[in-house]
Amino acid sequence: MSHLPESFLDTIVAIATPQGAGALGIIRISGPETFAIVNALFAGKDLSRQKTHTLHFGVIRYQDEVIDEVVISLFRNPRSYTGEDVIEISCHGSAYIQQRLLQVLVASGARMARPGEFTERAFFNGKMDLTQAEAVADLIASNSKAAQQTALKQLRGGFSEDLQKLREELIHFAALIELELDFSEEDVEFADRSQFMNLISQIKSATQKLIDSFQLGNVIKNGVRVAIIGRPNAGKSTLLNALLNEERAIVSDIAGTTRDTIEETLNINGILFRLIDTAGIREHSSDHIENLGIERSKSNAENAHIILYLVDSTTSEPVDVDWMQPYQTKTIKVFNKMDAVTAASVASVKNPDGQSVCISAKKKTGIEDLKQLMYLKAVGEELQTENTIVTNARHHAILLKIAESLEDIQMGMENQVTGDLLAIDIRRCLHFLGEITGKIEVDRDILGTIFGKFCIGK
């Protein structure tokens, strides 16, 4: 853990609620002079004599100016979010009032907080580790149930607990290896090598499970990009409207109506899907603007997590397209306009591998089956958010380093390297484990990048 930076010895203030007018606004103050600064402005009780976790109604007055009637929430250290003395002022939501309160508090000795500085102080004061601090930002930014549940589990220490178990087991054996080095002249062995090999195998398996979860975690955090691809007039815009259950895209019998991409979001079982309606794909077009739209469609298909390839079942168009061959594993074939074909035709396009679905976008039949197939393609079976799921790219990168160092330890054991070399590999692995949670000294530039992404006031 890092020592408390000198910049944390002052008192900071920020608006903690979103910008704009509202019923209420909250001003948050944290630091050693919090009670003295607010008490000098508060016309009511003597706040220095009040208990922690209490509310107090009164008026904020600066010189001869009454600024607002407020409710003061008191949180004495260390029982606060930051671990310092904290006061939250609930005022009326006028943008003018909030800004005026900020001006008065700064004039009275506080300074404006940097983005994420409240949470950064909570980290340095031991109120949370680095993974939990990052989860605060993820929780604020969550836009689906799955994202919220995953961030909440991490905020409560689920990921930290998993890492701590691995770290404690490694530390135990590292201590025994170090002890052997102290008695190297006596040729004694305190650490059971076979037991250690089993432990390394277990830790490797647990680490790989976390690494593998990142693909799902990325889907949960950022959503699933879904490109709707097909020939002109296949019904792509009609499908988009049917999925959203609203008239979002212009629908016309004229081929090439959609010239540019249209993006909308759809929530399926708590997972956010980002739908991209693209221009119709055909091999040749004399329209320059349409050709640009077609190229963009191909680019969207390449970058999408899922492709909905729409086929007009009333035509004899080919089901497979050469340029889409590399994307077969992420493609769902959607046979549209099934309301206009025979029952035999419906049976002929049924795909036993579960990678296709028959619908009528116009009649909105088969849409729920398509949504279920999209969900299965993105997530698999029912999502288990109680399991630890890695959603942070920084964590994923460090987990890859941990896996590499565990491989080095295992190879060293198999090659019967000396204890001093083995101890170096173990210490390296412990360093990476501590880097995720902030248990070791973390580079200030890394912390600046992490907390700089937070909103001011958090």
Please give a structural write-up.
The chain has 458 residues and is an alpha/beta fold. It has 3 domains: 6-128, Probable tRNA modification gtpase trme, domain 1 (Gyrase A, domain 2); 139-219 and 392-437, Up-down Bundle (Four Helix Bundle (Hemerythrin (Met), subunit A)); 223-379, P-loop containing nucleotide triphosphate hydrolases (Rossmann fold). Helix content is 44%, strand content 18%. It has helices at residues 34-41, 95-107, 117-124, 130-141, 145-155, 158-182, 193-222, 236-244, 288-303, 343-349, 367-379, 393-414, 419-437, 444-451; strands at residues 12-15, 22-30, 42-43, 55-62, 65-75, 86-93, 111-112, 224-230, 262-268, 271-277, 306-312, 331-336, 356-358. A 7-stranded mixed beta sheet has the order 3-4-5-6-2-1-7. The radius of gyration is 29 Å and the shape is flat. The model is unreliable at 249-259 (pLDDT under 50).
Outline type: flat
Largest sheet: 7 strands, mixed
In oligomeric terms, what are we looking at?
single chain
Q: What are the low-pLDDT stretches, counting only 5+ consecutive residues below 50? A: 249-259
β content, as a range? Answer: 15-25%
Structural class: alpha/beta
Binned, the helix content reads 40-55%
Distance between the termini: 21 Å
CATH architecture of the largest domain: 3-Layer(aba) Sandwich
Put the structure in a nutshell.
Helix content is 44%, strand content 18%. With 458 residues, it is an alpha/beta fold. It has three domains: 6-128, Probable tRNA modification gtpase trme, domain 1 (Gyrase A, domain 2, 2-Layer Sandwich), CATH 3.30.1360; 139-219 and 392-437, Four Helix Bundle (Hemerythrin (Met), subunit A) (Up-down Bundle); 223-379, P-loop containing nucleotide triphosphate hydrolases (Rossmann fold, 3-Layer(aba) Sandwich).
